[in-house]
Amino acid sequence: MLCCGHSLAAPPVDWLDPDTGHRVVRLSSEAGTRSLYFHQNSVTPDGRFVIVDSDRGIKAIELATRKNTLVVPGRFRTLFVGRKTGLIYYSAGTATTGADPSAGREIFTVKPSGGKPKKIATVERGTIGSVNADETLLLGVYAEREWQLEQGPRDPRFDANYQATDKDGKPLSFAEAKEVRLLQREQARIPMALFTIDTRTGERKIIHESTDWLNHLQFSPTVPDELMFCHEGPWHRVDRIWRKKLGGKPQLVYKRAMNMEIAGHEFFDVDGRTIWYDLQTPRGEDFWLASSTSEGRRTWYHLERDMWSVHFNISPDGRLFSGDGGDEEMVAHAKNGKWLYLFRPRMIPDVAGISAPNSESLIHPGTLAPEKLVNMKAHDYRLEPNMFFTIDGKWIIFRSNMHGEVHTYMVEVAKAAG
Hints:
This protein has 418 residues and is mainly β. It has a domain at 1-30 and 269-418. The chain has one helix and 30 strands. The protein has one helix spanning 174-187, and strands at 2-3, 6-7, 14-16, 23-26, 49-54, 57-62, 68-73, 77-81, 88-92, 105-110, 118-123, 127-131, 137-143, 192-198, 204-210, 214-219, 226-231, 241-245, 251-252, 262-268, 275-280, 287-292, 298-303, 312-314, 321-323, 339-347, 363-375, 388-389, 395-400, 407-412. The strands form seven sheets. Strands 20-21-22-23-27-26-25-24 form an eight-stranded mixed β-sheet, with no helix packed on it. A five-stranded antiparallel β-sheet has the order 3-4-30-29-28, with no helix packed on it. Strands 8-9-10-11 form a four-stranded antiparallel β-sheet, with no helix packed on it.
């Protein structure tokens, strides 16, 4: 097999990472198979299957046997797995694999074991980003017109293709070009709207309108009428993270207190009410995994530079976190950050058990104790690993190009015996 002029050996199937002592397993049987974005639920409620995209269509991988089954052949886009029914939700139609929120598409469900797909909605304009906890509502967004964020064809080994030049016309790096393109899209001020679609009746309702760039849609995994979204763009310019009750007004989750402070890559806790996010005070200098509850309680766990990760995630029991690391070009500019991490949170206790009188209204600080899971030195972070835990919490699934082409893997949380 050849890629970019280099011969690619078949990736290993099962091995111990010599630098960490953790077992790593390749789940995918074919190159070009990738797991979903970190907050898009893709594991069935019984823990049996993980749903992935592949060059041939949507696949279900049985975790116990690693059997790969093509469930929906063709070029469709997997959206997520229902947390209640275990159904696969996917889209088909105009710009199926693109990022055009002004186009339309049809939404289908199918069992992970296969069978006849069922059409549940027609989206005349926009894209679908989430389904609520009881699977009665889809959450989507549309824009009044298209805006092309990427330029040129996308390399299948990566997530995106950002290109831009500096004031002298010289090409910028991938990370810098991304910032430029995000700024240009943010400043376009294209009218957008969030909407819901009732999965039983097809009724569509507009729930929020804005000229801010609306993105990162997520329904709470436990509360059917609670959701969050972000204002996209360069993180140090936007008030990014917003939560909303259906029928209520959006509420800003985190308001910056210093110039160049950023918060983003937000996700729900397993309780469905707490929101976690990457916080930097300021950007690229001091790093936290932070949270805010619906009642306003704030927790900040401190991270060293090399432990910063593109995305974080939480275990099903809420006791552990994962992080997928990052390369030197990314925001943390980590010298040794290309690792997959397991984090154990530790709160900083009150001295002698004596709390401040207003302690409940203050930030509750802690630290994250890291454990390295996988050495990612051969991984190109233009593909983000997007780690997430299996239902039993014993493994963490991720995608990687560390052996050349993209495959889906999982790493065991417990270190191998001996």
